[in-house]
UniProtKB/TrEMBL annotation, chain A:
It comes from Cryptosporangium japonicum. Keywords: Membrane, Transmembrane, Transmembrane helix. This is Uncharacterized protein. Residues 330-349 are annotated as: Disordered. It comes from the Bacteria. The chain crosses the membrane at residues 41-60.
UniProtKB/TrEMBL annotation, chain B:
The keyword Transcription regulation applies. The lineage of its organism: Bacteria, Bacillati, Actinomycetota, Actinomycetes, Cryptosporangiales. Residues 103-154 form the RNA polymerase sigma factor 70 region 4 type domain. Keywords: DNA-binding, Sigma factor, Transcription, Transcription regulation. InterPro entries: RNA_pol_sigma-70-like, RNA_pol_sigma-70_dom, RNA_pol_sigma-E_actinobac, RNA_pol_sigma70_r2, RNA_pol_sigma70_r4_t2, RNA_pol_sigma_r2, RNA_pol_sigma_r3/r4-like, WH-like_DNA-bd_sf. Belongs to the sigma-70 factor family. ECF subfamily. This is SigE family RNA polymerase sigma factor. NCBIfam families: SigE-fam_strep, sigma70-ECF.
Length: 349, 169
């Protein structure tokens, strides 16, 4: 093989028209300026640190006393290397502050995002906090937006968006939690939604790597992969666990199957035993359908276990109704599923 | 917007298509290629005076791109993410040219990052041994040995593919 042949082979690999570029020159420019500002801030900070360290060392003998040191809360950090996609069996997102009145939380770990929804009395959603993998989503530009606070105190404003005609008690805050990686806080109902969104955004931490545990175990579906895992735990032992499987374990763009268990009857709807805060069965943007004979629920004394195949119009469900029925009978709830300490891992297989 | 910013945006428009293809050859994934290009172009802006004065502006950006790629390999970023653009498994045999492409792509992906970078710079970008060595911060001897090893592996993969095709027919 000579040089010419190697060159020809390499050229054939990129001979086809490439997919549309996700590189937006304006965003590159903005990112570069942000990077330059951070670099300057780092240099200044390092200089200030050296000066401060010298001052502290000089004063140390006079500062020594027996008072306990207050616990410092680390500021939120711009993540320099956010993930492109996440492992749905692990949870990266955490909050180091929550508003009063939160009685329950939903945690959702998907391939493309990680999400916490804070619920108030009656399991009403108050706020949904999400971090997305790099290059996954962009804010909807049809909505009017205004600049809000700088989340990382680096001078870059976040964006507050309100759908047309929406209540002034709701809206979404968007900001970059890392290069090309968006985070959002959606406020469902608050008297001061912008302030609450900014406080929650500043409380976001992304360095956790907690294993996801579920209140049930389920045998693996042949040929299907886990795309999302979600849990809810609330007062008085209320709980829910939801798993979503599809053929490639990535986005839920096609048909999928939901396996769930809950004892929160108020949250149970006709076709889906437990639906997270949003209209989740429709979140791929397509009008998906639940086959009438395949919305299978297995009520126990206090719990409802469900296996629901959801099909994209024009294509069949990823498992047949009979298989869904068999799967529903094999979902195994843990003892006392209302106590998250009893939840299990691994939960598939 | 400053004159520098305008010149930079013009520069980005000019070099973007070429950089994306080089990035794709380095990582075999268009999503990651775009991330690499974005990271490289941001770094170019930080040293815009040097980039603007370079005799070959595309060469400057390409050098930055390759170093960003190798830097990410070192920090194990590539091991933590899941690539999304793998070709689907096909039940039927692919046409010969497509099969050859897949073989080359797989063989390229299996090479160590530095060897892959040497092949892309030498044989796709048509750089000389000396220019490749300068881009990669290594000696011409290293470029020659890495290129020889990479070529041997590509050759081996293509020979195996030819043998399999002959057996099928």
């Amino acid at each position: 093989m000579d040089d010419y042949q190697v060159g020809r082979l390499l050229h054939t690999l990129v001979a086809d028209e490439p997919p549309p570029s996700r590189v937006d020159p304006q965003r590159v420019l903005a990112g570069a300026k942000r990077r330059r500002r951070r670099r300057r801030v780092s240099v200044l900070t390092a200089g200030a640190f050296v000066v401060a360290l010298g001052a502290v060392l000089a004063l140390l003998p006079t500062l020594r006393n027996d008072e306990p040191t207050p616990v410092a809360i680390a500021p939120a950090e711009f993540n320099l290397s956010p993930k492109h996609v996440f492992d749905p069996t692990r949870f990266a997102l955490e909050l180091d502050w929550r508003p009063d009145g939160v009685v329950a939380e939903e945690h959702e770990s998907a391939v493309t995002y990680q999400r916490i929804t804070l619920l108030t009395k009656g399991l009403s959603p108050l706020a949904t906090i999400s971090i997305n993998g790099t290059g996954q989503v962009l804010p909807d530009e049809r909505w009017p937006s205004k600049n809000a606070a700088s989340i990382y105190d680096d001078g870059n404003p976040s964006h507050w968006l309100q759908p047309d005609g929406a209540s002034d008690r709701s809206g979404q805050l968007w900001w970059f939690w890392g290069p090309t990686a968006w985070a959002t806080v959606r406020i469902h109902d608050s008297s001061d939604p912008v302030d609450l969104a900014v406080r929650l955004a500043k409380a976001v931490r992304t360095a956790a790597n907690d294993p996801v545990r579920m209140p049930f175990t389920v045998p693996a579906f042949g040929g299907l992969k886990l795309a999302r895992a979600a849990t809810m735990s609330g007062p008085d032992g209320l709980y829910a666990g939801v798993l979503k499987f599809n053929s490639d374990g990535r986005w839920l763009g096609g048909s999928w199957v939901t396996v769930s268990a809950t004892n929160a009857p108020d949250a149970v709807r006709s076709s889906t035993p437990y639906v997270l805060a949003g209209d989740d069965e429709y979140d791929s943007g397509a009008a998906n359908s639940v086959p009438e004979d395949a919305a299978v629920a297995r009520p126990t004394k206090e719990d409802v276990v469900g296996v629901v195949p959801v099909a994209v119009p024009g294509s069949g469900p990823v498992i047949e109704p009979d298989a869904a029925r068999r799967a529903a009978s094999t979902v195994d709830l843990v003892d006392d599923p209302g106590d998250p300490k009893n939840w299990k891992r691994p939960f598939v297989g | 917007m400053s004159a520098d910013d305008e010149a930079y945006l013009e520069y980005v428009d000019r070099v973007l298509p070429s950089l994306r293809r080089v990035a794709f050859l380095l990582c075999q994934d268009w999503h990651r290629a775009d991330d690499l290009v974005q990271g490289a172009l941001e770094r170019v802006y930080l040293h815009w005076a040097k980039a603007a004065a370079a005799r070959e502006p595309i060469a400057y950006a390409r050098t930055v791109l390759v170093r960003v790629f190798l830097g990410e390999q070192r920090t194990a970023w590539s091991r933590r993410v899941v690539l999304l653009d793998r070709p689907p498994e096909s039940a039927t045999a692919a046409p010969p040219d497509v099969a050859e492409r897949l073989v080359v792509r797989d063989a390229l992906r299996d090479l160590p990052a530095r060897q892959r970078a040497v092949l892309v710079l030498r044989f796709y970008c048509d750089l000389s041994v000396e220019q490749t060595a300068e881009t990669l911060h290594c000696s011409p001897g290293t470029v020659k040995s890495q290129a020889a090893r990479g070529l041997a592996k590509l050759r081996e993969a293509l020979t195996e593919n030819d043998a399999a095709a002959a057996a099928r027919s």
